[in-house]
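Onboarding guide, step 5: your first structure request.
Type a short instruction followed by the sequence, for example:

Predict the 3D structure of this protein.
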Amino acid sequence: MTKDAAMEPANILIRPKDTRYQDSFRRWQGCPRVEITKAGKLFVSIYTGGAEEDAENYGLLISSRDGGDAPFEMEAVVEHPAPGCGAGGGVLWLDPGGRLWMFWPQSVGWHDGRQGVWCSVCEKPDADELSWSPPRRIANGMMAHKPVVLSNGDWIFCCFLFRDECGVQNYRVRPGLEKEQFSNIYISHDGGKTIALYSHADIPDRQFDEHLVVERSDGSLRMLCRTFGGVGESDSYDMGKTWTPGRKSDIEGPCSLFDLRRLKSGRQLLVNHDGFESPLSQKEIEAQASPVKKWAGRSRLTAFLSEDDGRTWPYKLMLDGREDVSYPDITQGEDGCIYVVYDRKRVTEREILMARFTEEDVISGQLTGSRSRLRILVNKATGQPNVSDRD
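The system replies with structure tokens like these:
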């Protein structure tokens, strides 16, 4: 391994045939992300590789031409050439020009106190064989949600470095990066040509920040962040330049990732755990020796709809009521159809699942659309033997 391998780009392998990338070999997977082109080509990225969530992981990109009805086929693998340097498993985003962006974190070891957000862009994602730009590093830390295009044209990217009190034993941020241990905002004023650190929010009790931002109808911004005690929040009234002191929001959660998007209709859609039981306390989380934790309360994955900028959520649709369903990601097609991907039991069932539904389904509380379906199996890894039940 080079002295600083994580600062070198990963490889983007186009449809590799090697056995170790195939479903029949992989032994764990999770943290999926989804995007759909204007022509209806659906992409899903999966975090996988290695024995479980560790430094040998890579990212797998698959696609379907028919909104998930047609079989998914491999498109690419993002993998770092240096042993012990993990890469892949990042965010997918279709920008206003129709280009597909793929973001991923890189780190030596599970987390080296700096990591880094890298990206590559596909100019023609509907092509039969995809071509990607050379990877570039845009930020320290990680990124868990799609960028947001503000009404003033700015693009904002939510990147974060774990704080030392994140609950991972023996974790410390690298010297010199202490002032970046926040829910950071990176900004581009030129359509992604340049991206720079812009501001941050300081939200109490945050764990792995995994924050996101949504713009309200009055132009103010709301940031939501994963915390030990649920979901924290902060507001900006100057397009992300400054943020109010962080506070606990009225959204609950079992210390897990959630997603929130403004839909084409103007409504907001939240996908989160509803009525979950017995989440672990902060002390119970911190007491686990492994940096990859076991969790509780990741059940009853539900879509909520708001018509008043997220003040109330009067409509909801249960997507999957089982245990160990987590890490939802939302996108919406040109026809208004909503797609949510998530994982189930990352090291035993190893399922990547999808819900396809409409706003009317959520308002009704049940599926009414002709193409609406729940628990669509996107991908299942079947490699043996099982690793320990840690997810």
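Each response can be followed by summary notes, for example: The radius of gyration is 19 Å.
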